[in-house]
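Supplementary notes for students who missed Thursday's class. We covered one full example, reproduced here. Read the sequence, then the structure, then the short commentary at the end.
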Amino acid sequence: IGELKSWDLDGVTIETIDDTVKGDKHRTFLGGLADGGTARLTGWLDGADAGQTVVLGYFMAATPQRAAVAIVLTVSSGKTFSFNGVPIGISTSSPDGSATDPVTLSFKVSGAITKAWA
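Structure (token representation):
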């Protein structure tokens, strides 16, 4: 997606399963399912950008994207987080006196997040 100025990967968690049994004096837990959280990509609204146009099209046509799309977030050269995400939200505005409009595209992470640190 072009015109990107920042991204966030938030809410990555692992659920817990209570495995305490009768007679235990303290509760104990096991790790459960992981939730990849939500990714938010923030940039400048650009109707000519093919990546933005595809994602915006899902919302404007009210046609849900049933399959997750591949997303790669770059920390720095050779350092990335890769995952599949389903588009879930868009936020944009037109600030007074600004020639550019900010846009935030939100995705629900589907499946595992892969970290590549070269």
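Commentary. The chain has one helix and seven strands. The mean pLDDT is 88. If anything here is unclear, bring it to office hours.
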